[in-house]
Design a protein that fits this description.
Blueprint: E1 7-12, H1 39-48, E2 51-57, H2 65-74, E3 79-84, H3 93-101, E4 109-114, H4 128-139, E5 143-146, H5 153-162, E6 168-170, H6 186-194, E7 199-203, H7 206-209, H8 217-231, E8 236-238, H9 251-261, H10 267-282
Helix pairs in contact: 5-6, 6-8
């Protein structure tokens, strides 16, 4: 019997509401997420799906969260990388990154992220203090994850052009308007971002951008196809976005759908999307 290909989940979260509120979980639509989601909850779902390693991603812009995530990774056989948060605009950002590396689990720090999608300034990424912080991320040998909305993609492209030494990973394909069935201007802006060699994309988060009750793989195919064509398999990585994905699909459904969407790729290309791109880009152990 042929062994199942390795799978790396390049994007998931955990949180404990007794430790810290997740203030973004508001309204009836997100109500199912207002509970604890821990590695103990994730591990059986991930193992059943054949996942061998994961990247744990920050959820709140609180400095204390990153050491907590690193400590979780340090005690886990599943979490191979952490994308944390630190204030990019702080004058001592370089020192902060060095200090994080010295903490328990600090060797698992692979990148930083900020909720750019919540910034009212569409050009937030181009602020001089932000660009200085992004340069410090690059100097530290870390990756920067981008969680942006479609209208913020042009600024992301300009930032990537200004910082050729920084690898920028676009989360959730830039959150295209799947539920509305629209591809433009998202597709053109995504292709402009992908045209730069220091950009990477996650095939993640699409099920929750679609109609969460009625979505199908066919609804996602135009967006996944654009991403595959723009970035190519060697700059594309699978992410579950667990537990947020649970608003629309189970863990296994998300992975099975990703496999369907990349079904026309050859074995090497599928392996890239499902494992080797994430391992290379994040330098996972």
């Amino acid at each position: 019997m042929t062994a199942r290909p390795r799978v790396v989940d390049a994007h998931h979260h955990v949180w404990d509401l007794a430790v810290r509120d997740q203030d973004w979980i508001t309204g009836e639509e997100l109500a199912p997420l207002r509970r604890d989601f821990t590695l103990a909850d994730l591990e059986p779902e991930a193992r059943t799906a054949g996942v061998c390693a994961t990247v744990l991603v920050q959820t709140v812009t609180v400095a204390e969260e990153t050491p907590e995530l690193l400590a979780l990774a340090d005690g886990s056989d599943l979490v191979s990388g952490v994308v944390g948060w630190s204030d990019l605009t702080a004058p001592d950002i370089a020192d902060t990154l060095a200090a994080l590396r010295e903490l328990p689990g600090g060797d698992r720090l692979v990148g930083l992220r900020h909720q750019v999608q919540g910034e009212p300034d569409p050009d937030w990424l181009l602020r001089p203090d932000v660009l200085r912080g992004l340069a410090a991320v690059a100097d530290a040998g870390l990756v920067y994850d981008l969680v942006v909305l479609p209208h913020q993609l042009p600024a992301a492209t300009r930032a990537a052009a200004l910082l050729p030494g920084l690898v920028l990973v676009l989360d959730h394909a830039g959150k295209p308007p799947v539920a509305a069935g629209l591809t433009h201007p998202w597709a053109d802006d995504l292709r402009a971002f992908a045209a730069l060699p220091n950009t990477v994309c996650k095939l993640s988060g699409l099920v929750t951008e679609a109609d969460r009750r009625t979505w199908s793989a066919a609804d996602l195919r135009p967006y996944a196809g654009t991403v595959i064509d723009a970035f190519g398999p060697d700059r594309l990585m699978f992410g579950s976005d667990w537990p947020v994905c649970r608003l629309a699909a189970t863990y296994t459904e998300v992975l099975d759908t990703a496999r369907t969407l990349i079904g026309e790729l050859d074995d090497h290309e599928r392996d890239a999307v499902l494992a080797t791109t994430a391992e290379r880009v994040y330098g996972l152990r």
